[in-house]
Design goal:
heterotrimer; A: about 110 residues; mainly alpha; Helix Hairpins; about 70% helix; C: mainly alpha; about 75% helix
Amino acid sequence: MLPLPPGVPTAVPVTYYLILSAILFVIGGAGFLYRKNIITVFMSIELMLNAVNLSFVAFAYKFNKADGHIYSFFVMVVAAAEAAVGLAIILTVFKNRQTLEIDDIDSMKL
Amino acid sequence: MPTSELEKYFPVLVMAVIAAVMAASLTILSSVLGKRSKSPQKDTPYECGMAPTGDARDRFSIKFYLVAMIFILLDIEAVFLYPWAVVYRQLKWFAFFEMLLFIALVLVGYFYIWKKGALDWAIPERPRKAGPKTGTNLYREAA
Amino acid sequence: MPTNFMPSTEEYFRILPELILTLAGVLIMFLEALRKEGQKSNAGGVTLATLVAALIAAVMAGGSPGPAFHDMVFVDGFGTFFRILVLVVGLLTVLSSQSYLERHDAQIGEYYGLLLFSLVGQSLLCVSNELMMVFIGIEISSIASYIMAGFLRDDKRNNESALKYFLLGSFATAFLLYGVAWIYGITGTTNIDGIRQALLNNLPAVPLPAVGAAAALMLVGFAFKVSAVPFQAWAPDVYQGAPAPVSAFMSAGPKAAAFAVFTRVFLTAFGPIANRWEPILWIVALATMIVGNFAALTQTNIKRMLAYSSIAHAGYVLVAIVAHSEAGTAAVMFYLASYAFMNVGAFAAIVDYSRRNEKFVNISDLAGLGQKQPFTASMMTIYMLSLIGVPLTAGFFGKFYIFKAALESDLIWLTVLGLLNSAVAAYYYLRILVVMWMHEPGEAAESAPEASFGVKAVLFGSALATLVLGILPSLVLDFANRSANIIK
């Protein structure tokens, strides 16, 4: 990497990452609430988890500590396990009902 | 000497503009200058190779999903090897055995899906048997 | 690099229950993979033996309290109490599941493996002293129970239940985790005691809105897990759709563990900002009691009714958390223990009665049970009386200690409204008693099979525990009082 001229901050400030992370989290949350397709809803949850990861890494960078990075690894692994289970559940739902529209899945109402 | 935020990121902007101009000009130039020949062959997605059959929106066999899910799981577990490798020299045998245990646990999972038949790609799809589901093959059930 | 990195034998000893459960879960997977087609699974026996071993390990680990693995885990009386509680719930679940699984030709080995993994997570939750461990514990417990909720994968209601549990559970976890990330960013630590110290030491300088927001995010996550209003909507659908033994398990085990960690995090880590979260929790507790009780009034499905009742009971426990005192913590412990027994018992009563594909799960189907199956009906009567809170049952002392703690903390209005709520609750529990004893036997009761041995054992054991806790509450309460001081 070329040396930057003096006076230029070497990196994007941490606050920017946090703001981006908050935006991603809100997008994920809104997607969860307003989307109708189960797969999209599920993707929104993954987006929220990744937003959290971004926060962890940004904070770890700020503190210059490794733990935040390791936490994001844990989040990733857990998210993968959750994704596998989630997709399996979605597959069985599709097999039984031939639909992935969330409003159609309502066999248990009052 | 860059002073404002805008100036700091000016090179990025220049690069984005150059990339956009390049892409646009190449597309326009080739459509203006290029010779046009229309034939059924030209309209296929791939000009050479296998002739496409069927609809692209076909449903895929469940086997692909199963393998993809298993792949993701085993693949992601490898992420723990990176921090482990960083501290391995300091922790020596302790780290070695801890990782051995971790890998062993992952391997048991692998052994399980293997024995359950999740990796037998070639098993022919048979009609599903009625009766108790103990020890049945995953594919036969999923198919 | 710290020189004392190598964990000592003592530290391994302190997580021995989790080690036993994990190894046994893996062993069951191994045996299951090697089992020939048509061969009978003996996973049930292995699981029972494991749970007994884990119980002994938990008691022994409780005998030498202390931290382990760089303060990631802290074994104390509070944690040990809940560890034993979730393991006992696991034991009752195993006993009540066997006949159900056999009747539905389900994969028995897989079920017990998942149950053990779920218990690993809950057991870890009870003793975790670090927000990252809390997250991992919640996820281990939840991921396994998502699958259990939809265990009969050809059943439409099972699928739906699993899907709803999964989607809302992961949504809640994301909130919890975002809160953890912010706490980490503000205090530089995820250790629960560390957070408390950091907040206490710099209280004037701490950015209170940011800490409050982080605490609120975590509150959302926990509220989902304990099914508190306004995040209770998943519970009725999930409990109704899941297999009956799984509903029993989910309404007692994961809930107790979630409450344990909820209490620990909010009283310890967020203790210094208690004046901020107490009013919010006050409203949540009241709303949870009201919504749970009033929605339960109109239910026709037993499982759904018990789901709403479990929401209402979560409200009572929240009252004890709002009390924010040692008496309150002890009341939380006592209440969750007594609630676990009466609720698992009530769900277990319909495990065999509902027949294949849970045909008979309406309250009206219980008509005449008293005539046809006096044993089951009498046990059910004990649970219902205990859920109402009639004296001489565990439920009475549970409520008594909660409202006593609330009064000591000057929560007079909450106590009054809570007591009025329990009066409302009596209606829908008594309705079951009336249907069971006063109505003529219907189709369901006429054809009811004898309950299996395991289910009978659960019914008897839970009823016995409910009565013992109701007559000699000091057996448990003394221990709860001694270990209620969770602030180190």
